[in-house]
Amino acid sequence: MLDRARALLRSVFGFDSFRPGQDAIIGAILDGQDVLAIMPTGAGKSLCYQLPALIGNGLTVVVSPLIALMRDQVAQLTNYGVNAAALNSSNDPAESRRIFDSLRDGDLRLLYLAPERLARPDTVELLRNAGATRLAIDEAHCVSQWGHDFRPEYLALGELRRELGGIQTVAFTATADAATRSDIAQRLFDAEPRLFIGGFDRPNLLLSMAPKNSARKQLLEFLAARKGQSGVVYCASRNGCEDLAETFNAAGHRALVYHAGLDKAVREANQDAFLREDGITMVATIAFGMGIDKPDVRFVAHADLPKSIEAYYQEIGRAGRDGLPAETLTLYGLGDVRLRALQIEESQASDEQKRIERAKLNTLLALCEAPRCRRQTLLAYFGEQSEPCGNCDLCIHGVEVYDGTIDAQKFLSAIYRTGQRFGAEHLINILVGTENDAVLHHGHHQLPTFGVGRERTRDQWRSILRQLYATGLVTQDLSEFGAWRLTEDGGNVLRGRARIDIRRDALRPKGKKAKAPAAQLPDEYDSELLAELKKLRRELAADQGIPAYAVFPDRTLLELAARRPLSLDDMRGVHGIGESKLARYGEIFLEVLLS
């Protein structure tokens, strides 16, 4: 059946080959196996359940968290000639009737639903009668308390699966560490699913972080070099979004706002404009983004520190989904750290959940303060080893470091001598010589390491620990009360077999950082022709009320502008042009190409 899938990949979707890992996942799905797949954003998760839905009989039900995402994916599939629909609260009665008729007649191949809709008893009965044979769950990390975006309504999905007769279930997410993966598997499946971990690296993203000195000025400088590109700027507060958007617009950019405090109609209009048009900067809180599938976002910036390392990964992952170069910039400061810590402590979460959130904040700070390649640190969090990437600010510019072997040995010794069972604050109490109840109770005031770090402040020791974590010398077990443990590399440093450089306090900027270079798009195309093709795409999308990329993504237009095909037959070989799109748009685009 995989050969059939490859044929449909070309004829329907216009792709010559699978992306890495897609064929193995699709093969397992076609074999009827339950699947949990962890794939980096932009790796083609959607295709892994869309393509099998075209092979054989039965309905694939797709659980997706956002109405906007459902709408855009259905528009894209319809343009590919696939019979798909979304059943949600935004449908008018006539549209809902058409969907119910298609379900009754067995015409639909994919039906998109929100998890809230699935919890309704009438929906379960509807899907039973429609002959649902496969349940595909997008953004599956939402089911786990360990995930960064836990949603209670996702908890009902395991029971739904059983009510539908234990139908084949396939779950996808881009962000899941080991604890999250285990939790997803336990909550969604009755037996262990086939697990695929496709890697977390997004090599086309340039990763940059900078201490915040004047966020407004820093972001204006960043946007000035990227005028006319589509991008997202995340901000922690609603007022911050409004202020930044006003500043960007005054500087000549086209900026729109998205946050939960906006009128729903305004919010949806802004989101639709961003998805369907080129060159818009969306200034948004984290209310914007999950499931946003716009492939040609060229940059993502954070005006404030993200919530966690998973949230950071998910948010920057909205850039460069077409595989072309894209950029990220994250600004951070001590005020951000204090605010995030305060939000955790004042939340209504359980003590256990607060402990998890504190640990996740520390891992994000470790990334901010990393003394080596930023991508190495990010991937290490997800359990991957890598070489220096050459495409992050630290690889490009370097950092100021000192020989921190002695400092590292002090901390590593405190971890080792206490049995590798304690959290950061207890260990720091030992280093700075604090005789509190816990230290005295365990007799740790009698250790040789007690008080050996009095010359440094508690904040400096926290920074050093985060850097030890970032360089892979220690690891933290979140399921064991945040206990710190030595890795093999950490043991080598402790025993004097290796040295380690420590970065000076990254939260206190010492002058301006050099700017990260702008990512360059391929230049072997006719720029005037590309502008004409984009204009045509924009007009077609507006006429149909669909996102511009649902007509053709940027990569397709770039290839058309570079190759200048002279006939419909020549266009068949261009990325993203399948038979349905060739029939619908081929002649129209060919007129521009031949003019």
Spell out the key features of this protein.
46% helix, 7-stranded parallel β-sheet, 13% strand, single chain, Rossmann fold, 27 helices, 4 domains, alpha/beta, Arc Repressor Mutant, subunit A, 595 residues
What can you see in these coordinates?
By secondary structure, the protein is an alpha/beta fold. 46% of the residues lie in helices and 13% in strands. The protein folds into 4 domains: 2-197, P-loop containing nucleotide triphosphate hydrolases (Rossmann fold); 205-397, Rossmann fold, CATH 3.40.50.300; 401-503, Arc Repressor Mutant, subunit A; 527-594, DNA polymerase, domain 1 (Orthogonal Bundle). A 7-stranded parallel sheet has the order 3-4-2-5-6-1-7, with helices on both faces. Strands 8, 9, 10, 11, 12, 13 and 14 form a 7-stranded parallel sheet that branches. Helix 15 (351-368) runs antiparallel to helix 16 and helix 18 (405-417) packs across helix 22 (488-494). The chain is globular. The relative contact order is 0.10. Keywords: ATP-binding, DNA damage, DNA recombination, DNA repair, DNA-binding, Helicase, Hydrolase, Isomerase, Metal-binding, Nucleotide-binding, Zinc.
